């Protein structure tokens, strides 16, 4: 019989050393991505998950298909909403969009990781007298690898680019960053415990990667330093989504 290895042993230096964690309710550490074709499909997912899940991500697919009304439905149910809009434009436009979003009750909002855009979003929220949404800067999409960056003209190693963009985002006032679990440990050590790290591209060990390239399990990402994990397909494809979500929450708890 083979020797079972721990997450720390499998990830090696990617696991963050023990340190203070933000006081985040366990269920809020799991964010379910409502990446389904129609709003009615998303509502069905939410109904199936019931009280198991408290936090949902609405991405571009849903934003342009009635997703804002879906967000209102989620607010009425007492759920938290992560609006993954990845806002990018001139600073004034991003600021105006953020000001409008700050009136909706949205918990998290993504913007591209350029410092002027981050500053504009943070300033607009402040000017609106709001505490939310927390502003998250996208570092490098988990669907990209080093070859993709080379095609885009980036010579910098991928991890270095993620770190560079994350540090710039922190300087610009971002509340957190979006990054893969492979960079989470280094980011945690550099950003400290109060900047949140959200890790998408989460897959179970036996699940296909699909269009993602830098993926980890939920437990691995949390052990590496992530505060929240975003899970879509693993839950959406499960014959029992609620049971799958509970298993992921248990995995997160064990990693903590």
TrEMBL record:
Keywords: Decarboxylase, Lyase, Pyrimidine biosynthesis. InterPro entries: Aldolase_TIM (IPR013785), OMPdecase (IPR014732), OMPdecase_AS (IPR018089), OMPdecase_bac (IPR047596), OMPdeCOase_dom (IPR001754), RibuloseP-bd_barrel (IPR011060). CDD domains: OMP_decarboxylase_like (cd04725). GO terms for cellular component: cytosol. It catalyses: orotidine 5'-phosphate + H(+) = UMP + CO2. One of its GO terms (molecular function) is orotidine-5'-phosphate decarboxylase activity. It comes from the Bacteria. Residues 29-248 form the Orotidine 5'-phosphate decarboxylase domain. Pfam families: OMPdecase (PF00215). GO terms for biological process: 'de novo' pyrimidine nucleobase biosynthetic process; 'de novo' UMP biosynthetic process. Substrate binds at residues 35, 57, 84-93, 142, 203, 212, 232-233. The active site is at 84 (for ompdecase activity), 86 (for ompdecase activity), 86 (proton donor), 89 (for ompdecase activity). It is an enzyme of class 4 (lyase). Its EC number is 4.1.1.23. Pathway: Pyrimidine metabolism; UMP biosynthesis via de novo pathway; UMP from orotate: step 2/2. PROSITE patterns: OMPDECASE (PS00156). Catalyzes the decarboxylation of orotidine 5'-monophosphate (OMP) to uridine 5'-monophosphate (UMP). Homodimer. NCBIfam families: PRK00230.1 (NF001273), pyrF (TIGR01740). Belongs to the OMP decarboxylase family. Type 1 subfamily. This is Orotidine 5'-phosphate decarboxylase. It comes from Zavarzinia compransoris.
